[in-house]
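Q: Got a minute? One more chain.
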Amino acid sequence: MRKIVFLLFPLLLMAGGKVWVPIEWDSSSIREFKGVILSIRRNIADFESEGIQYELHLGPATYLRKHGIRIAEGSKIWVRGMVIKVEGRYYIFSQRIKASGKELNIRDKDGFPMWKIIRRKKIR
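A: Always. Here it is, folded:
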């Protein structure tokens, strides 16, 4: 199992600086959701599914656009990802999404970001 470090923005705001939270990618906590985007800022969206709000970590906007994914406030999407709860807030680290009539892998089965895998292949 690979340890991946995620930046949790609410913790960032509370701490007044960068807070890195080490999280193990846990395949057993992967769930599927259908819901709506409430708001979006860069690669993070406030997402609601079945009455619960989540902070949804997507991936770089350029990676999404390159693959034809357009996400805006009010977009209805399907997402599969790892869910965690920290200090009463829920976070989804997306692994696969469906939006704009397209489906896209965001992370591989071990949680490693696909946009980094693609970049590595181009460098070699």
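A: The beta strands are 3-7, 20-24, 30-41, 44-49, 52-57, 76-86, 89-99, 102-105.
Q: Perfect, thanks.
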